[in-house]
């Protein structure tokens, strides 16, 4: 039986959790990768612009996403994965039912382009909710709904609405897991990111982009496999425009 271990890196995360083993064949997720596609991703640690095209940090994000989905059993009856990215606007790159094999999915993730714009986290959460509440994007009944938000900073587009949209996701039974990247994230910023996450335990910190692959095994845990209750029905999103 295939399984993968969630090994918590105590030194990185600041607390200790017991080792958890999950059977990916039984843990069937409808999961959206929610990628920060803002300009800061293209900035090096010394504050200069990365001359690489695409930026090295963007490649780290893409590799992290590939490693994450490779821990799942991707198929129409296993786990399904969609992808939303956000800069000035949020875009649904593909829905849950677009790529239903490991190879086609990882190839599609690798083809997502870096744009380097502003940080519309609110729009990203909103578009993720569209995918995870509308059957036309492949949503299945009774499966755990997950959005993994990967970001290096706070929203600066519709920032006043981000917690409202995070709450809409909670009420729709979506577990938002936030991966915050970089030493530039201040304590107060981290507190806000924990408020965007479904719970404080659904926030994971990476010291820098190169550390992303070290934390792959701590992003999903046994809680991820459990569908959340739908506690309210927010106003339905408008018809998708992408």
Give the tags.
242 residues; alpha/beta; Rossmann fold; six-stranded mixed β-sheet; two-stranded antiparallel ribbon; 8 strands
Summary, kept brief:
This protein has 242 residues and is α/β, with parallel strands linked by helices. The chain is built from 7 helices and 8 strands, in the order E-H-E-E-H-E-E-H-H-E-H-E-H-E-H.
3D architecture notes:
The chain has about 240 residues and is α/β, with parallel strands linked by helices. The chain has one domain (about 25-225): 3-Layer(aba) Sandwich (Rossmann fold), CATH 3.40.50. Helices cover about 25% and strands about 20% of the residues. The protein contains 7 helices and 8 strands; from the N terminus they run E-H-E-E-H-E-E-H-H-E-H-E-H-E-H. It has helices spanning about 10-15, 55-70, 100-110, 120-130, 160-170, 185-195, 215-220; strands spanning about 5, 20, 30-35, 80-85, 90-95, 145-150, 175-180, 205. Strands 5-4-3-6-7-8 form a 6-stranded mixed sheet, with helices on both faces. Strand 3, helix 2 and strand 4 (about 80-85) form a beta-alpha-beta unit. Helix 2 runs antiparallel to helix 3 and helix 4 runs parallel beside helix 5. The longest helix has 14 residues, at about 55-70. Residues about 1-20 have low confidence and may be disordered.
């Amino acid at each position: 039986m295939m399984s993968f271990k969630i090994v918590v890196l105590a030194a990185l995360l600041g607390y200790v959790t017991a080792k958890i083993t999950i059977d990916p064949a039984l843990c069937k997720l409808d999961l959206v990768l929610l990628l920060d596609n803002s300009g800061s991703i293209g900035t090096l640690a010394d504050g200069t612009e990365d001359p690489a095209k695409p930026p090295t940090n963007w490649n780290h994000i893409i590799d992290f996403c590939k490693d994450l989905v490779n821990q799942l059993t991707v198929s129409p009856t296993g786990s399904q994965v969609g992808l939303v990215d956000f800069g000035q606007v949020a875009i649904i790159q593909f829905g849950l039912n677009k790529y239903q094999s490991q190879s086609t999915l990882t190839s599609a993730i690798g083809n997502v382009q870096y744009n380097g714009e502003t940080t519309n986290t609110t729009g990203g959460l909103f578009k993720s909710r569209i995918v995870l509440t509308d059957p036309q994007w492949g949503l299945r009944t009774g499966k755990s709904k997950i959005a993994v938000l990967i970001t290096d900073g706070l929203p600066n587009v519709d920032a006043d609405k981000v917690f409202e949209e995070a709450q809409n996701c909670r009420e729709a039974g979506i577990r938002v897991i936030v991966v915050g990247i970089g030493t530039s994230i201040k304590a107060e910023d981290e507190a806000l990111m924990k408020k965007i996450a479904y719970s404080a335990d659904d926030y994971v910190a990476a010291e820098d982009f190169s550390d992303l692959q070290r934390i792959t095994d701590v992003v999903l845990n046994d809680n991820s496999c459990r569908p959340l209750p739908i506690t309210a029905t927010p106003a339905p999103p408008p018809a998708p425009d992408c």
